[in-house]
């Protein structure tokens, strides 16, 4: 039996199961029972309950828990976990270059809370259908975009899923690492993922941070509020006294969130092309959006369309010397 170790435990998040469980409980407790979505359109559609019945898909961040753990709680608490039998986990590749996608060779994924069981039958099936690479154990354990979601998945199943409470091996995980995919490849993968969306036993976790701003990320985009020319900052003198850098970052992220909420894969691609926003999970998000566009009965009446409920940043940038990463949480009713 091959078990993927929790390689980032002890550095990116707590390695003690007891302390980690307590930490996750605390963040989940801070999420209210109702909230107003934060998309430009969704904010006008009234409050939503948390959790929301039939919510089966989320976008959530994957940074160290000290930074993104509280924001991720909003996505995880929004999901209706009770009937889940399988969790699809889609995340970007940060270290291993590929133009397609890859999945795991492991039997289990370790977390400090307990192990999650891989759906070996489905992994084998989609490996063939999608023509996926198989990650080496080194590649698998180096990638944090999948691992950072595992404790939250385990926690929510343990809290809300009766089958998991009786037998933790009864709920299976299907991890897919999405590479630097072209729009056409995202559409192809979306077509292959689409048939799984209608099954009420399937949960979809899409792993992504949003804007990575600063010279260390090679992205210093500044978008003036008056519609002036936007571009990467070269000098602090280009920053308006009335429109701080962090306000520009928020505006660009808002456009990205609105594009995702629109349900149009093309609109999302065009927004990223125009602003170059450094959304690291753009490709997993694109695959999911393409799947919703192709799934029978989806797209109409907002089915499968994300609603963003939380937006946070690691720092409020006011200087070219600063940097920040944005963390967004969203859910979709399926």
State the domain count: 1
CATH H level: which superfamily?
LigB-like
Global mean pLDDT: 96
Helix/sheet category = alpha/beta
Family: Belongs to the MEMO1 family.
Organism: Corynespora cassiicola Philippines
Pfam families: Memo
InterPro entries: MEMO1_fam
Structure overview:
It comes from Corynespora cassiicola Philippines. This is UPF0103-domain-containing protein. Belongs to the MEMO1 family. This protein is of the alpha/beta class and 334 residues long. It has a single domain (3-215, 280-333), classed as Protocatechuate 4,5-dioxygenase, Chain B (3-Layer(aba) Sandwich). It is built from eleven helices and 16 strands. Strands 1, 4, 5, 6, 7, 8, 9, 10, 11, 12, 15 and 16 form a twelve-stranded mixed β-sheet that branches. A two-stranded antiparallel sheet has the order 2-3. The protein has a two-stranded antiparallel sheet with strand order 13-14. The longest helix has 17 residues, at 245-261. The relative contact order is 0.19.
